[in-house]
């Protein structure tokens, strides 16, 4: 079955960086778009970034443009989120998601368990 396992979260100071990874299994990774979402305490879950199946097309939420970068390695069945210039408001649980098609506009059909990112001094 589909498994999405996030790693790389933790505590970081404002202005710092983290790299999240999502290890995928149970499906042909290279055929499907993927994305990252996040949910902060007391807030709605929100889209952070999306990437097409081949990794050619990407899309970002306005609040992370210029700071975060999404990528994937189809040979390793892994997706990444490089997060730079982190702010306290980036504190959230970050979720890896699989989409049901190759385009990043396709629907999300699977979610990982999430990894906590805390930005604090």
Question: How is this structure best described in words?
Answer:
The mean pLDDT is 97. With 121 residues, this protein is mainly beta. Strands 2, 4, 5, 6, 9, 10 and 11 form a seven-stranded mixed β-sheet that branches. The chain has strands at 3-7, 10-12, 18-25, 34-39, 46-51, 58-60, 68-73, 78-83, 92-99, 108-111, 115-119. It contains no helices and eleven strands. The N and C termini lie far apart (40 Å). β7 and β8 (78-83) form a beta hairpin.
Assembly form of the protein: single chain
| Topology as a string of helices (H) and strands (E) | EEEEEEEEEEE
Shape: globular
Strand portion:
over 45%
In helices, the fraction of residues equals under 10%
The chain-level mean pLDDT equals 97
Radius of gyration: 13 Å
Runs in which pLDDT lies below 50 for 5 or more consecutive residues are none
Total number of helices: 0
Strand segment count: 11
- Biggest beta sheet summary: 7 strands, mixed
Going by helix content, strand content and strand pairing, the class is mainly beta
What is the first-to-last residue Cα distance? 40 Å
Keywords:
single chain; 121 residues; mainly beta; 7-stranded mixed sheet; 4-stranded antiparallel sheet; 11 strands
Explain the layout of strands and helices:
Elements: E1 3-7, E2 10-12, E3 18-25, E4 34-39, E5 46-51, E6 58-60, E7 68-73, E8 78-83, E9 92-99, E10 108-111, E11 115-119
What is the compact description of this entry?
The chain is mainly beta and 121 residues long. The protein has strands at residues 3-7, 10-12, 18-25, 34-39, 46-51, 58-60, 68-73, 78-83, 92-99, 108-111, 115-119.
């Amino acid at each position: 079955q589909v498994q999405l396992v996030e790693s790389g979260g933790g505590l970081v100071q404002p202005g710092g960086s983290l790299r999240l990874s999502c290890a995928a299994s149970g499906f042909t990774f290279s055929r499907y778009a993927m994305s990252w979402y996040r949910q902060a305490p007391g807030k709605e879950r929100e889209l952070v970034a999306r990437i097409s199946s081949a990794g050619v097309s990407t899309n970002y939420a306005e609040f992370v443009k210029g700071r975060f970068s999404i990528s994937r390695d189809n040979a390793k069945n892994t997706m990444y989120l490089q997060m730079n210039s982190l702010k306290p408001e980036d504190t959230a649980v970050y979720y890896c998601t699989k989409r049901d098609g190759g385009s990043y506009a396709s629907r999300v059909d699977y979610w990982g368990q999430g990894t906590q990112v805390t930005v604090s001094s």
